[in-house]
Specification:
Layout: H1 2-17, E1 21-29, E2 45-46, E3 49-52, E4 57-61, E5 64-65, E6 75-76, E7 80-84, E8 89-94, E9 118-119, E10 122-125, E11 131-138, E12 151-159, E13 163-166, E14 178-179, E15 182-185, E16 190-194, E17 197-199, E18 205-207, E19 211-215, E20 220-225, E21 252-255, E22 261-268, E23 271-280, E24 285-290, E25 316-317, E26 320-323, E27 329-337, E28 342-351, E29 359-363, E30 380-381, E31 389-390, E32 393-397, E33 400-409, E34 414-427, E35 434-435, H2 440-477, H3 489-501
Antiparallel strand pairs: 1-34, 2-5, 3-4, 4-7, 5-6, 7-8, 9-11, 10-11, 11-12, 12-13, 14-17, 15-16, 16-19, 17-18, 19-20, 21-22, 22-23, 23-24, 25-27, 26-27, 27-28, 28-29, 30-35, 31-33, 32-33, 33-34
Length: 502
């Protein structure tokens, strides 16, 4: 009976496992070459600014590109592109992607402004879904010429159909020029920014640890936390109110539905980090939440899809990150440390801030350098996945996650990418199965129905086995007295034989 129960328990667990979900990748668009014409596509872009809007349209600005007029020449961009997730189509909104390395343009006889070409700028969506950028690394100056070099930038721009530079009077309190800052928008009046690398007021270059926000209604910056002139400050993991992430750039950042600001990893003065922090704006304190407190640590990969204490992604810079409506973070790739070696990554992680504080490893390789495996028809399956990469963007639209661009591996050698991949949650699919028209709700209902039917059958069989075993036990404890004529002849002979021996 004991072995029967163990068998049944194992069977039930396997049945329940059928109802667990999977995250499946599908390639949507992009072969890393710019296409113009009726169906345009941007070139590969690294560290472009991205603006996901609520209507499903994604806006993209700038970035470090790879192609100009068909020639593989690296360049800085200042074009705005839009992408519709529903139609899988790109469109040029502003600028000319064939004209790289442009300096800023200001209102003159032609009547328009445009920020200079740049990459790694801070970006936000402000009130009335206007687009905002600050700084980055790119062309300085203004006019109608191209630039030969690039530098840190500290200008603030708004786009609401046309570009407008936000100017400040001399002596105003403003952040200094920088790139790679962490940035958040509260969906309203405040545009938050932390850290980055750049030049302070004394002209020294390094990593910042200051926290700012720009208040749109007041048209002014406010310095909130950290010394704006101090550079290269190490993180403090003290259990008191002095904890802070220190100076860093290229972190994963997001803000949850309660207005709590989150930050993961990035580059610090002594290496890459894999620590998780949150900032409480009301109390103005940083809280260290999880991860290693030393740099350049490898990840701990245990079991896919299971939250395990002590499991966490390795230290890294420039990962892809986005938060869903349920406040769950999704983290993909980056450049940093896998289970043993350092390189470009394609692992997928999930963090639930309302859970027990553990990371879920959801898929991807625990080794660096993976190449893409894609189906050009857009089929999704467990065998398809993007290659290892960093410096691109991730967003979530209607419960589906997307990634674009970055630097890393497609099918062959590393380079700047323009691929769009889609990550969809469906019920469990066999590893060799893919589908372009997969109905997850139907599959979910069918799987659940089969599971319930099998579970019911198993319970009935278990009940029958239990009743039969009780009857056998009752027979052994209360044996029926047999008449002599009811005893088999062999038994009688055995008793007589034993009596003669005595």
């Amino acid at each position: 009976m004991r072995w029967t129960c163990l068998f049944i328990l194992n069977f039930i667990l396997n049945v329940i496992h059928l109802t667990e979900g999977s995250y499946l990748w599908s390639w949507m668009k992009g072969n890393n070459s710019m296409i113009l014409g009726d169906d345009p596509t941007p070139s590969g872009l690294l560290d472009a600014a991205i603006f996901p809007k609520q209507n499903g349209t994604i806006f993209l600005f700038g970035g470090y590109g790879t192609e100009t007029r068909g020639s593989p020449v690296s360049n800085l961009q200042n074009t705005i592109w839009s992408y519709e997730t529903s139609s899988n189509l790109w469109k040029i909104v502003d600028g000319d992607p064939t004209l790289p390395n442009q300096v800023s343009k200001h209102r003159s006889s032609d009547g328009f402004e445009r920020p200079s070409s740049r990459f790694d700028a801070a970006s936000w969506i402000g009130s009335k879904e206007s687009l905002w950028i600050f700084g980055g690394y790119g062309c300085q100056g203004e006019g109608n010429q191209t630039c030969d070099g690039a530098d840190f930038l500290g200008d603030l721009w708004r786009f609401d159909g046309q570009w407008t530079q936000i100017l400040f009077s001399n002596g105003s309190l403003v952040p200094t020029a920088r790139r790679g800052a962490a940035c958040w928008s509260d969906g309203g009046d405040r545009l938050w920014m932390y850290g980055g690398t750049g030049v302070n007021k004394t002209g020294s270059q390094g990593l910042f640890a200051d926290l700012w926000y720009y208040q749109i209604s007041l048209a002014s910056w406010k310095h909130v936390h950290g010394n704006q002139d101090s550079l290269d400050i190490l993180p403090h993991y003290n259990p008191d109110l002095s904890s802070n992430p220190g100076s860093r750039r290229s972190s994963a950042t997001w803000i949850d539905s309660d207005g709590v600001i989150w930050l993961f990893g990035g580059v610090t003065p002594d290496g890459d980090r894999g620590d998780l922090w949150k900032y409480l704006p009301a109390s103005k304190i940083w809280i260290f939440m999880a991860g290693p407190d030393t740099p350049d640590q490898p990840g701990i990969y245990s079991e896919i899809g299971v939250a395990i204490q002590g499991q966490f992604p390795g230290c890294r810079r420039e990962p892809y990150a986005a938060i869903g409506d349920d406040d769950i973070l999704y983290l993909f790739g980056g450049e940093g440390f896998a289970s043993h070696e350092e390189g470009y990554l394609n692992d997928l992680w999930k963090y639930d801030p309302f859970g027990d504080g553990a990371w879920f490893w959801m898929g991807g390789s625990s080794d660096p350098g993976s190449r893409s495996n894609r189906n050009l028809d857009g089929e999704m399956g467990s065998q398809f996945h993007p290659g290892a990469r960093n410096g691109g963007k991730m967003w979530i639209q209607d419960g589906v996650a997307y990634i674009f661009g970055g630097y890393g591996y497609s099918d062959s050698n590393a380079g700047v990418l323009n691929e769009i991949w889609k990550l969809t949650y469906v019920d469990d699919v066999p590893s060799n199965q893919s589908s372009s028209n997969y109905d997850s709700q139907l599959f979910s209902g069918l799987t659940l129905g089969i599971a319930i039917a099998i579970l019911g059958l198993v319970l009935i069989i278990s009940l029958i086995i239990f009743i039969m075993s009780r009857r056998r036990r009752s027979s052994r404890n209360n044996p029926t007295k047999l008449k002599e004529e009811d005893v088999p002849e062999a038994t009688v002979e055995l008793q007589v034989s034993n009596a003669e021996k005595v």
